[in-house]
């Protein structure tokens, strides 16, 4: 009888209760941006349910991810997180959750390039000049990040390793507050996703020097930026992706409804347009299936673990 009741309940999902997406970073940053756009696109396919955002920042996404891992597995609490799901298992010891076994995988949402940006007062007008400034200021440069294990942290660690320059990391609860301090000149450099940086680059509030993708971007605003590989940092490559997760043990019918809704949301023309305008590419096909998502994350863990170890970049 209990099983039947639980089954019937799952069939009603979402029964007039709001669905909460936990964003493990500060409001106004790249993860928050995609989560808010996704929440909007999920509303209709979830039968008009309200989808709300809960910002639970700290520890480079680990606090928010741990909260969802421990939440009731009923479909009403979800996690939107990025590449940290694949890098923290190598970067951080004693993680308070297990990426492989504490979550149900609902699908990849998008891929997002990163940009290397600097405070507006920096005089370097291209990457070569920036490299000269970095070489001449060893020991004096600080670089922002969104906490240990975050995307900006990973990119910054790889950048320091590739340029053989140790910089002072300055952690924030997300890159929204980090970019505010970059604009104010309190920090020198930041590596951050185009979903957060392109409006600031367009408004000329920050200086942009390079992109982290293997090829140049096609969007008009950023198409003239060199790739870091082109600029001399051979094989430098980071692309961020976001995925949607539910706590382990969420009933199968609820997971099916959530995955179906996600598939519809990712085909929503307004969502696609908003993402593309910020340099992101919306996920399609197999990666929007739970199994494809799980396999992709496992492949990313296998890919990043040796890179992180070879670069000697650990968080602790
Ligand atoms: C990151 O660096 O991991 C992201 O920018 C996080 C965020 O603030 O959304």
UniProtKB/TrEMBL annotation:
InterPro entries noted in UniProt: BUG, Bug_dom1
Record keywords, A-Z: Receptor, Signal
Lineage per the UniProt record: Bacteria, Pseudomonadati, Pseudomonadota, Betaproteobacteria, Burkholderiales
Protein name, entry field: Tripartite tricarboxylate transporter family receptor
One Pfam family per UniProt: TctC
Family classification: Belongs to the UPF0065 (bug) family.
Gene3D superfamilies associated with the record: Bordetella uptake gene, domain 1 (3.40.190.150), Periplasmic binding protein-like II (3.40.190.10)
């Amino acid at each position: 009888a209990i099983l039947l009741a639980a089954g019937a309940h799952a069939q009603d999902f979402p029964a007039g209760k709001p669905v909460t997406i936990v964003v493990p970073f500060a409001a106004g940053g790249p993860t928050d941006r995609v989560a808010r756009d996704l929440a909007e696109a999920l509303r209709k396919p979830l039968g008009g349910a309200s989808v709300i955002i809960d910002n639970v920042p700290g520890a480079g996404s680990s606090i928010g991810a741990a909260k969802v891992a421990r939440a009731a597995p009923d479909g009403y609490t979800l996690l939107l997180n990025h590449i940290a799901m694949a890098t923290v298992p190598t970067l951080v010891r004693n993680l308070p959750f297990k990426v492989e076994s504490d979550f149900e995988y609902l699908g990849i949402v998008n891929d997002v390039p990163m940009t290397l940006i600097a405070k507006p007062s920096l005089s370097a007008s291209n990457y070569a000049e920036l490299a000269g400034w970095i070489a001449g200021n060893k020991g004096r440069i600080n670089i922002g990040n969104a906490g240990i294990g975050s995307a900006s942290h990973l990119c910054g660690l790889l950048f320091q390793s590739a340029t053989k320059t140790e910089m002072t990391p300055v952690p924030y609860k997300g890159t929204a507050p980090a970019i505010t301090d970059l604009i104010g000149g309190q920090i020198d450099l930041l590596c951050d996703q185009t979903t957060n940086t392109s409006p600031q680059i367009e408004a000329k509030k920050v200086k942009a020097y390079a992109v982290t993708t293997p090829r140049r971007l096609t969007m008009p605003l950023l198409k003239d930026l060199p790739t870091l590989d082109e600029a001399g940092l051979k094989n430098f490559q980071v692309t961020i992706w976001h995925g949607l997760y539910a706590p382990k043990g969420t009933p199968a019918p609820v997971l099916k409804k959530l995955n179906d809704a996600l598939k519809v949301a990712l085909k929503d023309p307004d969502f696609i347009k908003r993402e593309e305008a910020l340099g992101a590419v919306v996920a399609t096909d197999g990666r929007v299936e739970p199994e494809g998502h799980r396999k992709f994350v496992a492949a990313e863990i296998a890919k990043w673990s040796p890179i992180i170890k070879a670069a000697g970049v650990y968080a602790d």
